[in-house]
Fold RNA methyltransferase.
Amino acid sequence: MPIRPITSAQNATVKQARALKLKKERQRTGLFVAEGIKTVEEAVKSGAQVETILLEEGLLQQLPWIEDYAKAGEVCLVPEGIVDGVSDTRSPQGIVAVVRRPEPALWESPEALRGNLLVLDEVQDPGNLGTLIRTADAAGCSGVLLSQGCVEPSHPKAVRASMGSFFHLPAVQVEDLVQALCRLKNQGYFVLAGDLLGSDFYARPTNPAKKALIVGNEAHGIRQEVLDAADARYKLPILGRAESLNAAMAAGIMLYDLVREARQI
């Protein structure tokens, strides 16, 4: 379809995209906004259901993949400033996409759960969430499981912080996290919880099972009922004077050590 121009910030397509800054509108429509060149390109390459792309006129010649995408999808050229009003960031890159939220079926078959999982309990910061999804993707996880108390994975800041990994890895919010963990155990998973009162992570016994690693809320950690559902609780040793590690940093260290363990078994 041809690339079409939009000249007014009051155009219906622009107004719909701008409304998606609100959580209630994202929930009502099932749509969200992906921002930035890298993120939008990953959405297109991954086969995500992109409804439309808003692109500043001056960027068209700089992004050769846009014209190929426009043969099947909608691209709207807009004057400078319109993308700023849609974007959630202070320094937008002149491109946003309206994307339909995927409904990943993480439980459909054992094949969907082929590797380690990252489990998040009440993670509140969207930037942290996006970084955690990106980290899980890099460490070869097959998915990310989120409690209902977590920030929504399609929050614009979370999508942006994932640097495209949101479109590579299923991120599923479940109604009952404890029940989901029990289901994982029935499917052969060993569930580890990151807990400041746990045993030394590096002194853990070798375990050949697939792993599900739980990371908790930035301030309060993992809820007690979720801790009780874990098979083991581990902490990273703090060797200096820092009180603790950022949740995403701790998850990255643990996930990659689980990868190392699996390679040595």
Observations:
- The first strand starts at residue 4 and ends at 5.
- The CA atoms of residues 211 and 258 lie 8 Å apart.
